[in-house]
Predict the structure.
Amino acid sequence: MAYPLKSEEMLFSKKLNPPYHPPLFLNNCVIKSVKSHKHIGSFLTTTMSWEMQISNMISKTSKRVSALNKLKFRLPRTVLDTIYKSFIRPLLEYADIIWHGCTSCDSQRLERVQYECALTVSGAVRGSSYSSLLAELGWERLSDRRHVHSLVMFYKIVNGHTRQYLKDLIPPVVSVFTSHNLRNKHNLRVPICTTSRYQKSFIPYATQHWNGLDTAVRSLSFSLYKKHLMKLVRPSINKHFSYGPRYTCALLTRLRIGTCSLNQSLFIRNLASSPACNCGCRCEGVVHFLLYCPTYQQYRTIFFDNLQNLLGNSLDFNSLSESARIHLLLRGSTCLSYHTNCSILKLTQLYIVHTKRFATTL
Ligand SMILES: [Zn+2]
């Protein structure tokens, strides 16, 4: 039974002057005409824009983002990471395959929320590049995740893991339309799109990218298929980057990302008048601080002795190139175990603390 007072009508049109639409009646009552309507948590608007949907999602996350920020020095990075992925990111991805074709402006608004959370979780400072933060944390861009979610849902629909009415929307394969033995005969026929809005909507978008996948990938089991797609967009995860007390872990993160309180970094960000070091060196960068600054030589000698003891005979630290030494001190090595990498980062963190170079930071 339809209730006129609970019903609403919407006219979807992108025209500046939408055509006149006579009012609709139900049981002699005029049905209310609205500009937007919330349907199963998603906002539909007469202009077919997702701006309202995205604004709503961002406003829902704001309290959680500020709560996460308040915990930034109380909880370790791994816990903050879990809180973000469990309680904030899902809100930014609600029904994301539906509004995946949103404007780049709306997409960037969502990425900015993730950027704020990445700063909080990693302990990095504002001005750090988004790409560096994602690489540091092993997070994917939200837009990449939406792409994967779309293709995962498409796989489910194609393979009959969803309701039949969804499968009915899947376009037929190319071979249905031709008797020629074409190379792309197993591809699906992409619907003809006359507007970019339609082209970016779920079926045309997912069909096009489904066709772009290797047929062997399309034939994988669901879990392997999903894993394969995530691998394409997910940066490698370095669990040892989260090692250590929050304070020193955050300082090391800042050295790794390059936005730290060393004069070179401050100078680049217009926060210092000179990149020079107090020791007289022209540039106080990460390399100078870790390898050469004479001010900290006594701590460095102990640091490198302990490091060489840790590495044993397998690796001669001093014989490595400058960039390899910096890489090892800041990131460890993929050739070494998790525990050895943690021990290396622990020594670097101890050196940072002993130098007291960042004593007033954080
Ligand atoms: Zn110096």
In short: The chain has a mean pLDDT of 92. Residues 51-70 form the longest helix (20 residues). Residues 4-45 form one domain. The longest strand covers residues 36-39.
